[in-house]
């Protein structure tokens, strides 16, 4: 009599904080503790590890949200060791799989993997072993492609299941299921077949990044039933966040920042392009830093060499694209610098997360300029031109279900990153955590981000009229100019360019002369973030450079003129900026002399405003 599980509408149960899962009275408790020490060499469990293990071993479907480095692997490797049968692990990258298997074999845990680029005979041998009554493997790793495309594998899994030897199905990096995530892999969407075929086998889905919509997607696509969710705070109290205006002397600023705060300490500088990596690394070397670059067009031994040098502290700083970082476990990374705009808040959070694994205070500094937004946007629209994280780089783009919607998602993710950077009022932690669906009380930031450090109070101001004027101005000048040009006209410039185009005769010329440059540009950029104005980016045929034109998005403009108000925040008491000191570097010795002034608080632009709604939307 087959047992048909009843599917209940409510699809998940909050597991964190439920005392049941932290009990030490499960029949397997003793065995867990012994093996955790003996086989894995751990003295204790980290937050949520015991709970997750107890829930999955009780037979529940479990969804785990745990920051990178939190110890997700143990939550399935330990059960795999002590349960009957085989644990199937789906993991997105062969290199990640190989790394895991190496560690398992070192601990004497029999594990293997199947991937499409393996010799056929080797695959056959592993499959044959699965059919054996005395199968030696405890864990079988596969890539998602393998599950979706290999009927042969599915038949072997059915056979294992029939013999009650399929212990558990693990989906690692589960956010790859979702188009909303930053690492979408189409084949992950086909993994729902596993729950259909093996409805009673417990599924354990693991990820370090999931917004509410990603979580929804994952639970849906995998067909998880009454899933127990464990999530822990993504806040990293020992990371200090700041965003600094990126100027022409950005490289000087970075050199100075490192010299004064992290001299001879270990760090990562994320750069947008391969060329940038080499340029930044070269420059810092000249300044006397022990530094190298790392990117996707280096061959694997070269990359491994650099990574190894860095791991052994033979060099301090690595200038890398996002290709660098996955699976990196260096505990004493003291700073992560973003030389240009990251592509999404999730990516940014994860990249910053590589700092301070040892719990010691570390800095995350992002150098932001609006023109980098134009650059990244252009690269995204070109597809492929931009370096990908290793998770997404391996697959063929023609696999994509809907390339158009991917482009849209990427653009939207980028936009949120822009509004994060433009926001100079709200707590950086709050802005990040809201994005992960987490509530956060900014007062617990304790001035460990630039915004909390400099803002004491703010007032709200209605800037709707200014916004309307800016939109009008874009129209009056024929939707042919860049945002910086529009700002010049609005603030009443008489530059050659303005004169040449006779903008000084346009009715709104100088209408915004009472505004500081920073104020006007923040409002304009806000209109772009809100999709009321759109940046049309293109490569100029002549010089091969990128240019951008501001256009009006009519449907959204209607809202603006139909009574929709735009409220922005202004700091009402801003810490006085010391005259003559406009570089983006904190005071010397600040790091040792206490918790103040660690952040570059003197910025070239005046403090301005930010929309309240932004944080709600982020
Ligand atoms: P994640 O997959 O969540 O990013 P990993 O599973 O790769 O993290 O674990 C990160 C590191 O933490 C590994 O080096 C692992 O050995 C270590 N680790 C995991 N659990 C524990 C524990 N209970 N005690 C000590 N170290 C642990
Ligand atoms: Mg992992
Ligand atoms: Zn803060």
UniProtKB/TrEMBL annotation:
Residue intervals of the Helicase C-terminal domain: 253-415
Location in or out of the cell: Nucleus
Reactions catalysed, as given in the entry: Couples ATP hydrolysis with the unwinding of duplex DNA by translocating in the 3'-5' direction
Region Disordered, residue ranges: 575-602
Keyword tags: ATP-binding, DNA-binding, Helicase, Hydrolase, Isomerase, Nucleotide-binding, Nucleus
EC number(s) on file: 5.6.2.4
GO terms (BP aspect): cellular response to cold; DNA replication; double-strand break repair via homologous recombination
Enzyme class: isomerase
Gene Ontology CC: chromosome; cytoplasm; nucleus
Entry GO MF terms: 3'-5' DNA helicase activity; ATP binding; DNA binding; four-way junction helicase activity; hydrolase activity
Domain Helicase ATP-binding: 53-228
Family membership: Belongs to the helicase family. RecQ subfamily.
The protein, known as: DNA 3'-5' helicase
Full protein segment contained here: 376 to 993 of 1167
